[in-house]
Amino acid sequence: MKRSAAREKAFKYLYSIEIQHEKSMEQLELYMISNDITDDKTKEYIIDIAEGISKNENDIQELININLKEKWQIERISKINLALLKLAIYEILYKEIPYKIVINEVIELAKKYSDDNSRSFINGVLASIVKQKLSD
Fold first, then answer.
1. 63 close to 129: Cβ distance less than 8 angstroms
2. What is the three-state SS of the chain?
3. Structural domains of the chain, ranges and CATH numbers in brackets
4. What's the pLDDT band for 133 if we cut at 50, 70, 90?
5. Pairwise CA distance, residues 106 & 123, whole Å
6. What pTM did the predictor assign?
């Protein structure tokens, strides 16, 4: 499975845990079984994403919070957009995947799964985070 397809599967898992508020290895295994994810590289990638975001959840949420426009709160962000932001931030900051690739693919997922305003919102938050990262 190509990385972009694996990223989409990872996003769908992240979205499901945003909705269900349940993060467990059993839940992840059930997700992979029910979505016929059998490729070992894809499984490893999704497990890494799930565990990495869980481990760094507070830092990732704080980054989202401080990069929101005034009067915006993380609670106002749709679950889809929140899952996309978490995925992108984790890959950019912790996996050091080139930000242009990550942002482009996350924006494509936003086009597919979210509303028209989501692309510019996600792009704005991620651009702010990348700008901070590059200035550090």
1. yes
2. CCHHHHHHHHHHHHHHHHHHCCCCHHHHHHHHHHCCCCCHHHHHHHHHHHHHHHHCHHHHHHHHHHCCCCCCCHHHCCHHHHHHHHHHHHHHHCCCCCHHHHHHHHHHHHHHHCCHHHHHHHHHHHHHHHHHHHHC
3. 3-135 (1.10.940.10)
4. confident
5. 9
6. 0.94
